[in-house]
Amino acid sequence: MNEKLKPYYDRYDKAFETNDIRELAYLNQFANDVDIRKWDREFICKSMAEKDGVLKKGEKEFYINDCGVVTNPNVLSFVDKRCKAMIETAPIDGKWYNGCSFMDASSGFASGVSKCGSAFDTEKEAVADVAKRGMEWFAQRSAFIVRELKAITQPQLVQLSLFDF
Question: Which of 21, 24, 125, 140 is 20–30 Å from 112 (CA)?
Answer without folding.
Answer: 140
